[in-house]
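SEQUENCE-TO-STRUCTURE ENTRY
===========================
What this section holds: a protein sequence and its matching fold, both as plain text.
Question of interest: how does this chain fold, as expressed in backbone structure tokens?
***
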Amino acid sequence: MEPVKKVESITIRPLEFQVGSYHVKIALDHDRIAIRAYSEISAKLFEGMFDTKDLTEQERFVFEDCEAVFVMMEDCIIDKRKVELSDVGELKFPYFFQPNRRSQVEKIFEVKLKEV
């Protein structure tokens, strides 16, 4: 009998997209998400990082972990949902939550980035 092989985590390509004048890059590294947003026009750079323990109780209930958050962010980009980045570094992703079989609610996942 062969020993059980440990499954390596999947390497996911970083997300790169535009929000207004900002070029945003989001990378998933194991159970941590790193975000960088830069605008040549305003010469502003925002960065942030969070992991599963930084998620609120409700966010953990909906997403469980950072990999699921990353997938939601990717879905927002693919579905062309309106992602927003404010002048103070608040990056917002709309997503749909289904609390029961009959209703679906739009919620916002917000990440606060720091200006560098």
